[in-house]
Design goal:
183 residues; alpha/beta; 2 domains; three-stranded antiparallel sheet; 4 helices; 34% helix
């Protein structure tokens, strides 16, 4: 076949790509494949997260605080039924204690903030300053019950206590809060 000069060449026929499916069916199969691949990649993470939540594993408050109190995600106390207890993640720095969630009538509750001295370091929490304060006040005023809550942490400076003071003031609205500074 000879062409005259200036006439365009006939269009070459294109073979069909990938089989006999029309182009719209190929496109939808490609999108289904891509979506399936993404879902298959994400599925193990969703399954692990669901399993951990079902068995209540990996809660941040059950672990030690890696920021040693600089983060605000770990409260100092958590409610456990009718009492508040020191959160396990703060156990390295604060003594284990618990107190009634609802303050008994006629009770004056004092929250004591500070560092190692308030905590009772190097001795136990039972010999700490807040306990001596409660014993002294109960001995002097038997008409009222005084309860001192020890919020003293080992190696806790004022700027690290600020989130704890905020937590206590927002949660319990105390009438008094005492901070002991030792040098």
């Amino acid at each position: 076949m000879s062409l005259k000069p200036g006439t365009p060449a006939p269009a070459a026929s294109k073979p069909s790509r990938g089989g006999t499916f029309p182009s719209s069916a190929r496109g939808s199969r490609l999108w289904v494949f891509r979506l399936s691949a993404i879902l298959l990649g994400v599925l193990p993470f969703v399954a692990v997260e669901t399993g951990l939540r079902m068995f209540d594993l990996g809660r941040p408050t059950n672990q030690t605080d890696p920021l040693a109190g600089f983060g605000s995600q770990h409260p100092l106390f958590e409610r456990a039924g009718d009492v508040y207890r020191t959160v396990r993640s703060r156990g390295l720095f604060f003594g284990a204690q618990e107190f009634a969630a609802k303050k008994p009538a006629g009770t004056f509750r004092i929250f004591c903030f500070g560092g190692s001295t308030v905590h009772g370091h190097p001795y136990q929490n039972a010999t700490a300053f807040p306990n001596w304060l409660a014993m002294e006040l109960n001995g002097r005023d038997p008409a009222r019950c005084y309860e001192a809550i020890n919020c003293g942490g080992v190696s806790y400076a004022s700027y690290r206590l600020a989130p704890i003071v905020r937590e206590v003031c927002e949660t319990w609205q105390p009438l008094a809060a005492e901070r002991k500074i030792s040098r």
